[in-house]
Amino acid sequence: MVLAALALPVLAGVTTAHAGTPGARDACGPARPGQVRCFAEIRTGTVRAATGTPAGYGPADLRSAYRLPVGGGDGRTVAIVDAGDDAGAEADLAVYRDHYGLPACTTGNGCFRKVNQAGRASPLPADAGWGVEISLDLDAVSAVCPDCHLLLVEADSPGVDDMAAAVDTAVALGATVVSNSYGARENGDAPRLAGSYRHAGVAMVVSSGDDGYGQPNVPAAYDSVVAVGGTTLTRTGDGWHETAWSGAGSGCSAWIAKPSWQHDPNCPGRMVADVAAVADPDTGLAVYDAHDGAGWTVVGGTSAAAPVVAGITALAGHPDRFATAAHLYGTAGLTDVVGGANGTDRADCGGDYQCTALPGYDGPTGNGTPDGLGAF
């Protein structure tokens, strides 16, 4: 069912200035109409020597913050869907995993596979400038699910149809969890591609976006996906603390009907997000991407949050529970995030749960962040 347009404006699938963190820049640049953009944000001004500990959170930090086991996920395949080819993806992944003492994940040992959107090893598409995004996705899944197999599916372009085709290919090749760190503002065409993000027995994990509160993005607004919002994750004297990240995407869909398992009172359509994880570039992840000239860098955005949750979903081993996000509503095993907001002057919601992290469900952080594997 498609809803009539709500009070929020319906925006075309183009990039707008995001409400993210000062001192960060978009990794992939703007998108054209009919295209998605990636949600990776590179923290600027961070310089690291050639040796030593990279800035940004690594696997041990994520395991500690989200109470995850050290290993697991053997034989389970997480697909990463991105646009264009990153010729250095496997080499960069090897540097990351070696630095953190993770088991090798290569084409040779069968752990890593890269294909085009038709599922073939060649010809691969042209470079679309998404190299940092691809490295972030591969590194983030590796950090939380070191024994998972990684399938990188490279769409011919960031066009919405090409991305949807790449998702279908990922499922056809056996992925049971698919991570999608991209989106475009929903419009009247949004329901057309919903079927590509709905596959029985497969968990579709999607970034909510980096533009703060407003009209939500697709595919995050589809009711068949787990939409992942974002937090600022900080280490404290007694552990970890999270608040809503100011850039985390949230909003009430004008085109996708409210699923039966959502009961928030002020949105008649599908509400984004469902859960959350670290996204603030100021508290971002360490990522290695020498092929695109970044080397060790710090990357955030909900592009970081989605592959973290995708890896945790694979680690838990029950992707069949996530034909929708219903399982994450009214469940234990999540840490409720209270504090912070993503409302801005251009789209303020007056302190409502849709833009403010309040006790219980809220738009920026959904039902909360992972607390072990119980919720997954």
UniProtKB/TrEMBL annotation:
InterPro entries, A to Z: Peptidase_S8/S53_dom, Peptidase_S8/S53_dom_sf, Peptidase_S8_Ser-AS, Peptidase_S8_subtilisin-rel, Sedolisin_dom, Tripeptidyl-peptidase_I
CDD domains (UniProt xref): Peptidases_S53
Domain Peptidase S53: 56-376
UniProt keyword annotation of NAD present: no
Secretion signal, residue range per the UniProt entry: 1-19
Gene Ontology terms describing biological process: proteolysis
Protein name: Peptidase S8
Organism: Actinocatenispora rupis
